[in-house]
Write a sequence for this structure.
């Protein structure tokens, strides 16, 4: 039960910080996450793939090899790389790769992926 309460408290803190951060003065700081947010499905799947390749036995097998602090550090590095990838991607394309696939499957025809010049 204490673990569940801690998770609920952390979720509440994250939501509260997001709401508070939505003020104008914080807007520019949050823009760094814009592209990663626009490709949320791709970012989520990439995190899953990277995480399993780093921690599970079919990848590097590092699960249990170090503490939570190192794991959080790895997660932050992965997310920073994802933000950089997202910025690079959206300079060239209008949708994230999995978002484009999802959109194309939803309307049952291939959507235009490239950015209008």
């Amino acid at each position: 039960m204490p673990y569940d309460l801690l998770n609920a408290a952390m979720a509440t803190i994250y939501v509260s910080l997001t709401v508070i951060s939505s003020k104008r003065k914080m807007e520019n700081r949050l823009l760094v996450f814009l592209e990663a947010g626009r490709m949320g499905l791709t970012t989520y799947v990439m995190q899953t793939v990277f995480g399993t390749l780093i921690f599970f036995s079919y990848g590097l097998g590092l699960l249990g090899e170090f503490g939570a602090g190192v794991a959080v550090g790895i997660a932050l590095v992965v997310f920073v790389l994802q933000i950089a990838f997202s910025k690079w991607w959206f300079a060239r394309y209008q949708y994230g790769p999995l978002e484009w696939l999802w959109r194309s499957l939803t309307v049952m025809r291939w959507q235009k992926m490239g950015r209008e010049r």
